[in-house]
Amino acid sequence: MTDEADIPEDHPRYQSLLTRHRIEEGVEKGITSKQGLIAEGRGESFDYLIGEETIPSADEAERAAAARLLLADHAVLSVNGNVAALVPGEIVSLAEATGADIEVNLFGRTEERMRAIADHLREHGAENVKGLAADARIPGLEHERGKVDADGIFDADVVLVPLEDGDRAEALAEMGKTEIVIDLNPLSRSPRTAAIPIIDNIIRAVPNVTRHARELADSTPEELEVIVAEFDREAALDDAERAIRDI
Ligand code: PTJ
After folding, report:
1. pTM to 2 decimals?
2. Domain boundaries defined on the chain
3. C-alpha angle with apex 82: 78 to 84, nearest 5 degrees?
């Protein structure tokens, strides 16, 4: 396997090579599941069709997401094996910029992978990583997949769930959580369930939400509420689908 530094930045597929490299390394470190490799391939094909850029409607969604996270009573950023491999430091920065908690929440939960991901996030600056207590359940999901922390996702009013599977996104929405979903497939059930669907590569989306959150840090709650209210989720989903079809 090559080192990240060996990937030439002027390569036309730089971002895609970097993403693949991080996922491959994630699997080798026991962070990312083998299913995560398949999810990555799926995401890459949609990114190719979208033009490997943040389209304007995704940027608007990222600004609305930043405003919603800043307004939250208790926001939690949910981290799975792909998220931990692709954007560990960027998730820590977003948590700092918005006051959100970080919780590891896995589709294919094993104690080894939970611990490896929590350690990886701590190596990237996370002070408090939730998910290991697993003392609460998401109703409607089978035992392992429904495990969450009572003082984390279970208690949260706003949850960022990137690259999530549809069942869990729906179960969280049914609990009354406001969901912000990052997913490159606008037809997938998870972004369709979300209050704020972000159709963008997580590699670009998370730093951009952080940038918006820093810019909005001094805004009043009323100003933030206007940004959230003006965001049109249906228009954002339609726009992403159009960008894919009009290639
Ligand atoms: O680590 P675990 O055990 O929690 O498992 C995580 C995966 C991702 C394997 C699991 O949640 C899963 O199987 O997810 P799906 O159903 O394959 O859905 C993943 C979604 O994320 C798909 O719609 C992809 O298009 C999308 N996706 C993949 N890579 C990216 C992405 N979206 C944004 N940025 C990406 N880099």
Report:
1. 0.96
2. 56-245
3. 60
